[in-house]
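Researcher: Here's the sequence for the chain we discussed earlier.
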Amino acid sequence: MIEEKKTTGDAATQGGQGGEKRAESSNSVNTELRNAPPATPPPAKKRRRKRSARQRSRLPKKVLCVTTYERLGEYLAAFAEGHFHLLILVGSGGLAKSRSVRAVLGGKGCWIEGNATPFGMYVKLYRHRDEFVVIDDVDAIYADRSGVRLLKCLCQTEEEKAVAWHSDARSLERQRIPREFTTKSRVVIISNDWQTLNKNVAALQDRGHVLHFEPGALEVHREAGRWFDDVEIYEWFAKNLERVREPSLRHYVRARELKAAGMDWTAVLAAEDENKRARLAAELLESTEYDSTGARVQAFVQRGGGCRATFFNYRRYLLK
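Model: Thanks. This is the structure I predict for it:
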């Protein structure tokens, strides 16, 4: 009994000591936690900036980028030969998109321009059955449900398409035009600002080839050289290509008009910033004195333009 009590007492003592140790350990941990520096919060995830609906719809996803008139001519020639059912040509104004299409078609075909309505378009399509159809910058057509439905019928991938119009029956009867007809017409749509406004427009563009024509300042300058006959103005533009932010053949036409009026024709680029390095790069790219890109890079560096990478940055900008 005495040993039993002793054992029990020892156990109690050990338990008490263990409790004290646990208390000490707990107090130590609490002290460490109080003295520890505040925890650094995890880095906040960067939120991706959402583009506006207008930005998202600026261009369709499936698009072929074309930067030279030669390449554009190849696509237009293929269209004129009947290889494409639908070609959508998108690009800024002043790049001669319409003129290029007219040239390859030889003035033939049905041209739908300006403020054409879907009904007026139907009438014209009937009267020009089986001919090439050019829809030139008619925003109202592909922004209108009836217009898009009409285009979807016209731009089917079948060789022969059925096109129908079931309203305005009296107007059709007066003009002796049926409510439905078939045609083998192939279509090119020219637009300065194509937008995927809805699923119908998206379905339309999926039936054809979408080209985004975006030539650089030097490429547009070379194209102007094929027809622009004022040497003084043309050479001035050659020396100032780096100032051209939005390449356009209209710059040359406006400069000639200002010159004929006795006004300061260099004002056409007055709002553009002058960049000496970009100007040097433009001169070297235009010059026939150099037979290779390497020679142009070397001249750029020697004449104080900067390093090799700088030359190629300006080259990409000028030739884009």
